[in-house]
Write a sequence for this structure.
């Protein structure tokens, strides 16, 4: 299947849809997941058009995973979770719902299970505050 230029993340990249931005650079954009599975759930995406891991050239993949590490550091500092999960799905059968490659950065807490994937919209003000908390940790 070919890349759909109107998928929701492509539209965010073009500025046609809003997001709670955390970080951006030449190759990547990071923003809050609109349906967070735990507080602080952040997404990191490449700017390049790629449906999944298999479609992204290695150089851009490197830049994307480095950005993911950087964002994960900031998420860890901002929320102090004992664990941070990095998740990435390829294909509907694997649980992918948005077909532009993305890495989930999800803080994890002992004994706390994840809320259902993509199930419950987060409060916009809370998401904005969380984005600001993470951005502050990226600057130090
Ligand atoms: P996946 O199932 O791995 O494709 O994950 C897609 C993720 O994108 C889900 O966790 C959704 O909550 C999230 N999502 C969908 N639309 C938006 C949006 N407009 N802004 C931020 N996150 C979104």
């Amino acid at each position: 299947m070919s890349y759909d230029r109107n998928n929701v993340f492509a539209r965010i990249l073009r500025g046609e849809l809003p997001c709670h931005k955390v970080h951006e650079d030449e190759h990547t954009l990071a923003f809050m997941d609109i349906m967070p599975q735990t507080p602080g759930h952040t997404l990191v995406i490449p700017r390049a058009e790629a449906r999944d891991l298999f479609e992204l050239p290695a150089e851009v993949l490197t830049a994307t995973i480095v950005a993911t590490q950087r964002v994960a550091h900031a998420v860890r500092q901002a929320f102090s979770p004992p664990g941070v999960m990095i998740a990435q799905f390829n294909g509907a059968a694997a649980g992918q719902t948005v077909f532009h490659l993305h890495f989930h950065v999800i803080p994890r807490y002992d004994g706390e299970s994840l809320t259902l994937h993509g199930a419950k919209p987060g409060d916009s003000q809370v998401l904005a505050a969380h984005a600001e908390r993470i951005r502050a940790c990226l600057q130090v």
About this structure: The mean pLDDT is 95. DSSP finds three helices and five strands in the chain. Residues 8, 17, 19, 33-35, 43, 89, 95-98, 117-118 surround adenosine monophosphate (CB under 6 Å).
